[in-house]
Amino acid sequence: MRTRNKPWAKDRLAQYPQYAIASPEECRGKWASIFGNDHPIHIEVGTGKGSFITGMAKAHPDINYIGIELSESVIVTALDRIIEAELPNVKVMNVDANDLEQFFAKSEVERVYLNFSDPWPKTRHEKRRLTFKSFLKIYENILRDNGEIHFKTDNQGLFEYSLTSLSQYGMTLLYVSLDLHKSGYEGNIMTEYEKKFSEKGSRIYRLEAKYNA
Ligand code: SAM
């Protein structure tokens, strides 16, 4: 995603601490009290501009959603969407997914969404792919038993890599679609990338997988 650097983004995030978590380390183990309920927590890693997370939060008021995004210039758009929708069940954090265990205790999260993650096609960059085994370990350490990963992408190579990576890790595949938009799957909420690539005719791949307790 080519995004203009927004030097004011940090200040804007700081103005809305009810939506943009300012000190995520302090939230570890306390998410139920932060949301004010014990609804399940679903996180999206690499949330981008937030269409998916805000759409999901509107559609599922009994789930709490947290968008994780490395780029403050990108996540500030997600913040604007949340402010406009006045949603009580969604927050964002401007952090690196490598550090998720600092922000969530074991079993605090029920589901991880990965949408259109950067493909990092070069073999030497494999460790940066969000479905690499070290990331699968991080997600496992914050998910409850039988927690799930739901993954969508337009990138066939990354999808094939992810099917192998998740299977080799010992996860069980629950759902695989090689053409989501023609699959009859109901309740799909589009991401920004999904809209852009599907309008250009790209096929969308999707999987659901669970960790085995
Ligand atoms: N999910 C959105 C969508 O489908 O429209 C955005 C997809 S974009 C290709 C990938 C996003 O993941 C970028 O905004 C990038 O900054 C973010 N990202 C990549 N690695 C990350 C990491 N380690 N931690 C948090 N965010 C990350």
Short summary:
It is built from eight helices and seven strands, in the order ααβαβαβαβαβαβαβ. By secondary structure, it is an alpha/beta fold.
List keywords for this structure.
tRNA_(Gua-N-7)_MeTrfase_Trmb, Rossmann fold, seven-stranded mixed β-sheet, alpha/beta
Instruction: Assign the CATH architecture.
Output: 3-Layer(aba) Sandwich
**What gross morphology would you assign?**
globular
Radius of gyration: 16 Å
- Kindly report the oligomeric state of this protein: single chain
Distance between the termini: 36 Å
Which runs of at least 5 residues are low in confidence (pLDDT < 50)?
Answer: none
CATH fold-level topology: Rossmann fold
Could you give the count of β-strands?
A: 7
CATH class reads Alpha Beta
Beta strand %: 15-25%
Order of H and E elements: HHEHEHEHEHEHEHE
Overall pLDDT confidence = 96
Structural class: alpha/beta
Number of helices: 8
Estimate percent helicity: 25-40%
CATH superfamily: Vaccinia Virus protein VP39
Bound molecules: S-adenosylmethionine
Binding site for substrate: 122, 154, 191-194
Protein name: tRNA (guanine-N(7)-)-methyltransferase
InterPro entries: SAM-dependent_MTases_sf, tRNA_(Gua-N-7)_MeTrfase_Trmb, tRNA_methyltr_TrmB_bact
Catalytic activity: guanosine(46) in tRNA + S-adenosyl-L-methionine = N(7)-methylguanosine(46) in tRNA + S-adenosyl-L-homocysteine
